[in-house]
Design goal:
This protein is an alpha/beta fold. It is 39% helix and 16% strand. The longest helix is centred in the first third of the chain and has 19 residues.
Length: 310
């Protein structure tokens, strides 16, 4: 039987954030820390978390700064060091969780924006991890990131730092639904499941616009992902799984996912696996074949447990 424990997690900024922990019965084989995506919250991961807990893992995660019911301003990470605060919060939760489960293999799983946070996190804290999983990630060229950052800086300069930015949102997501025309909603690119899309639209803590500063912080984070020097800091023997739908616009229909995988390989990481699901869109945990995805993730984690833990 799986139980879900609700708690409070203190951000490095001092702000209180929601924390969730799912666990089954008996000694866990591993801990999997979830890092959620943009404009959502940790409670959207109840189904995959329960499935992974049933498979023998403890699953833990928190709602980011600027997200969920405790956010001062939705889509705003803070006045300074916004992206780094996200990374530091992930590490703080990891350390706190490891205190409860000392010696248990530890994996980190980031989705979408959470995968970008995770990729930066691996540049700083890959030591001690048993593996990393990236869901719905993507590759963004230096030119695109530089342009996005320039627009974000201008929006902030003209008073939009703490205000929702329809302009940047349109620039970032206007083409997301292009492959799915005629689209039923503006979020059809998330998943083929209409019920999930409708739940997302009906959730007041999903789909909101980022502020100018929120976008600026994210583009600053994306800029780091293409730095060869930073990528070289990722532990070379760290196993990494990347999975996505082959119809995910964030991953350029699979092309961007493979580019990210090649970046890790070029940086010397030896065990990099890519899994693309036919017909799947951005949120494979919420797709028609979600149970297959849960099982594949569990199987990959099991295959990468340290031998003494098997």
């Amino acid at each position: 039987m799986v139980t879900m424990e609700k708690g409070i997690f203190r951000s490095v900024t001092g702000q209180k954030l929601d924390r969730r922990l799912w666990k089954g019965e008996g000694t866990p084989k591993a801990v999997i820390q979830l890092v959620h995506g943009m404009a959502e919250h940790i409670d959207r991961y109840d189904a995959p978390a329960r499935a992974l807990a049933e498979a023998g893992f403890v699953v833990v995660g928190h709602t980011h700064l600027g997200h969920g019911g405790k956010a001062d301003t939705l889509g705003h990470f803070g006045k300074e060091h916004g992206w780094q605060n996200l990374i530091d919060d992930v590490h703080s939760l990891r350390l706190a969780t490891q205190n409860y489960y000392p010696g248990v293999p530890y994996f980190i799983l980031g989705h979408s924006m959470g995968s970008f946070v995770t990729r930066c996190y691996l540049m700083e804290h890959s030591d001690g991890l048993a593996g990393a999983i990236l869901s719905g990630t993507g590759y963004f060229s230096h030119g695109k990131v530089t342009s996005g950052l320039a627009v974000s800086n201008l929006v902030c300069l003209f008073g939009g730092a703490e205000k929702p930015s329809p302009l940047i949102n349109k620039l970032a997501f206007s083409s997301s639904n292009k492959a799915f025309a005629p689209a039923r909603t503006e979020f059809d690119w998330l998943t083929r499941r209409n019920d999930v899309v409708d739940q997302y639209i009906g959730d007041p803590f999903c789909g909101f616009l980022f502020t100018g500063a929120g976008y600026r912080d994210m583009f600053r984070g994306l800029r780091r992902l293409n730095h060869v020097k930073d990528l070289s800091l990722v532990r070379k023997d760290l196993p990494i799984l990347l999975f996505s739908g082959d119809h995910d616009p964030v991953g350029a229909m699979g092309t961007g996912v493979n580019k990210v995988a090649q970046q890790f390989r070029d940086a010397g990481v030896k065990d990099v696996t890519v899994k693309l699901y036919e017909g799947g869109r951005h949120e494979m945990f919420n797709e028609e074949n979600a149970s297959e995805v849960y099982a594949d993730v569990a199987a990959w984690v099991n295959a990468h447990l340290p031998k003494a833990s098997v």
